[in-house]
Amino acid sequence: MNSKKRYYSSLEEIYLKNYRLVNVFIGDCLNDAEMKEDVASIVWMKVAERPESFLEMDEYLLKNYLRVIVRNVIFDEVKAEDRNKRLYEKLKNAEMTNQGENEVDFIAFAVKKEDYLRESVKILSYDEKLIIHMKYVRKLSSKEIGDIFEISDGAVRMRQSRITVKLKAEIIRLMKEKGDWDV
Q1: What is the dihedral of CA 63, 68, 70, 71, to 10 degrees?
Q2: pTM value surpassing 0.85
Q3: Which domain holds residue 142?
Q4: Are residues 125 and 58 part of one domain?
Q5: Which of 75, 142, 149, 150 is deepest in the core (most CB within 10 A)?
Q6: Per-residue pLDDT at 90
Q7: Structurally, how many domains does the chain consist of?
Q8: 135 shares its domain with 177
Q9: CA dist 152 to 90, 146, 149, Å?
């Protein structure tokens, strides 16, 4: 039996044909809706970072590779969540043993900052999240990001600056809303 391998012609086709499959993979491992959304975003950002390698894979290999990416991203997210829990524990222990106020304040600030940042990222568009991910997680230069988006590195820096201002404004809004902002 001679079976013909099927290849995708564009990233859009990969996304449209595999969106549901990726969500099923995620749903098999997670119950938290917010975390599911975060994992899906990261998976598709990883695909968008190296489009040529995914377009070279046949359909069967691509689906298996997506499954591996989902598993790895979930593992990384669970590790990050555990790290946050340890920070909370350290904060509680520091308060119980009456350690220096500065250390307690610093740990509390780090935990709050990460929570506010995670919440504020939700207002960003897919492209904005992708730019931030490429810059701070993948540590790509403005030139490399520009090559991916087919724009100049100056335009990338301008977008990064606008995204940073947008995130700062959202963090301040969230802090004011929750009463953590002292003016």
Answers
A1: 150
A2: no
A3: 112-183
A4: no
A5: 142
A6: 62
A7: 2
A8: yes
A9: 44, 5, 9
